[in-house]
């Protein structure tokens, strides 16, 4: 996560994965002038089992305001950008890791609901026949 100073205040940019061998930020490529990516809301509550620990610089969720407060940066937007990877494949950090692909389960849903409708119709017919035979 890198802070980007804008006219609106600080916007945090998730530039992507960094290998432990490339952790010092002086080994990273410079932040590009144009950032393309996904705009995502801040995640202030941490995870179910862990909370952010700003004192030890341990972040389990992307809480943009807490990160800015920890660095004394000032006004911060309540969102961040998951940046795409720009540049050579060997460049660090490696952005573009957020993948948005949803399974298309429409056919299975349709078959399930039609099967349930046919079974309900069969049950209604069975109840009506039983009532008539009594």
Task: Provide an overview of this structure.
- This protein is α+β, with helices and mostly antiparallel strands and 134 residues long.
- It has a four-stranded mixed sheet, covered by helices on one side.
- The chain contains two helices and four strands.
- The longest helix is centred in the C-terminal third of the chain and has 28 residues.
Summarize this structure as a short list of keywords or feature phrases:
alpha+beta, elongated, 134 residues
Overall 3D shape: elongated
Number of distinct beta strands: 4
- Specify the biggest β-sheet: 4 strands, mixed
> For the residues shown, what is the average pLDDT?
81
Q: What is the helical fraction, as a range of percent?
A: 25-40%
Order of helices and strands: EEEHEH
- What are the low-pLDDT stretches, counting only 5+ consecutive residues below 50? none
How are the secondary structure elements laid out?
Layout: E1 2-6, E2 9-14, E3 37-41, H1 64-71, E4 76-83, H2 106-133
Précis, in short:
The chain is α+β, with helices and mostly antiparallel strands. The chain contains two helices and four strands, in the order βββαβα.
